[in-house]
Amino acid sequence: MGACSTASASTATRAASAGPRSARSAGASKLRRPDGQTHSDGVVLTTVGSDANGSTVGDSSVMRAQLARGVVIVLGFASLSLAGYARFAPLSAPETQLQLPGTVVLDAHGNVLERDGRSGMRIPIGLGSVAPRMLQATISAEDRRFPQHPGVDPLAIARAALTSGSQPSGASTITQQLARRLYLADDASPLAVRKAHEALVALQLEANRSKREILELYLNDVYYGRGAYGVEAASRLYFGIGSGNLDLAHAAYLAGLPQRPSDYDPANDPTAAHTRQAYVLGRMVEDGWISKGDADAASATAIDILPAVAPPIAHQFVGLALAELARVRPDLAGHDGLVIETTLDAGLQNEAERLIRIRLDEFQGRNVTNAALVAIEPGTGRILSFVGSATDGDPLHGGEIDMVLTPRQPGSALKPFLYAAAFERGFTPATALLDVATSFPTEDGPYAPLDFDRSFHGVVPLRVALASSLNIPAVRTLDALGLDAMLEMTHRFGLGTLSEVESYGLGLTLGGGEVRLLDLANAYAALGAGGRLAQPFAVARVRDAAGRILYERSASPPVRVLSDQRAYLLADIL
Asked: In the chain, what are the domains?
């Protein structure tokens, strides 16, 4: 499967360089022959005096007049461009001209968790990571002679003049569109002068950048509507998938949007959106990228469009990630145009939220209204799911409290760390412990713990005492080891909130102190990683709007806090 994907991406790369071939060639949806040689018929161009279907346009005298006017316009643009060439300073790098969008937070697979709705969104992506069909659809929809022309397409200008009878406003190439967006957004010159400037900048771009680089810049900057700048952001916002996973139907849908994003937004006018998709598919057939059967199948494919305004995902986790970034890179805090790649897995997050709902339903009769869950990858510390509360944002039911980060009593969840300390002092899983009625003298009077079932089980091996979460053997073990031994072990495992030593007693092993759920989950992850404790983290990488890496989490090795053997014994018991 991976080899097939690589082959497809490679094919698209070759196609972007060689251009589409005629639909008359055998196997029109393929871009190269099996022997690897490029087809010689190249791009099918509409002849002057005919429309795209070959219909005659007017009589010969009218055709000659229109052709002459088109040639004059082309020559006029060339003259204006050449005359103005000396006045233009060398272009600054196009990457520095990209419009600065709002910050977006992504999960580990590129799914959008949250974005700044006041600004646009851009997710940089390399051309090789975009689905080949999207490259083909874009070229057919916007600039079918893109592989051949030098930045300005005289044939397209003449063709636009023949059909419009006026200024060639619809003849801009992909390179000209990019030039206009990056360098000429504030140009208030008359139309003819603006077009000359546009052509000049396009020629300069083509002289300094390859076709692949120009197409990549275009696909990362063109506006698709809904605040999406670039194909990756658009694919995520419209379909919830990456641009590398776009099939023909979805690619044609997206490629049709840039001309009039609002008009073609399926949320505004589904019929217009489908009509535009059909237009793009028809152009792809004409250009030889696909067959008529491919186009018909794509047109009949049902496409699920996401709501124009989607609710944020894992809002409390996003808050954690932003706080972490402010701590590790304060210079980036609050900046616009950041792409923050996190460790969260949106699929696991959905499952965590589902499990929370199930558990709350089970405890509905016991007045339980809230819950929290966090999952951490053992050995790395990557936070995979994070539900701070089941009622996020609902202050009436504790939704404003993040229970993953708020210290709470953990109950019997501290017992494994008591027995870890016991193992280091000669205890084994077979050590006999007493589960009998026991009273411990304290300053506040006798303390007599009970097991959950309020029964006594006599002599039990340590393995059974821990696996059954028996209270009396645990308290007796803590009394034998001393409070300092247990606290040293819990601190070693990262439970730093257990710091009020003077307030703890023998009930500590039964949950008498408060810990953060995040720290507790990470401590258990260390047991699963063979006694190696990693630092939990939420931010994996941060890029700017041009794709440059501004921050990347360094791979720091976990710290050994317990021997492999003892960690294995505890994990085996649990």
From this structure: 2-35+42-87+137-221+256-299 (1.10.3810.10), 411-573 (3.40.710.10)
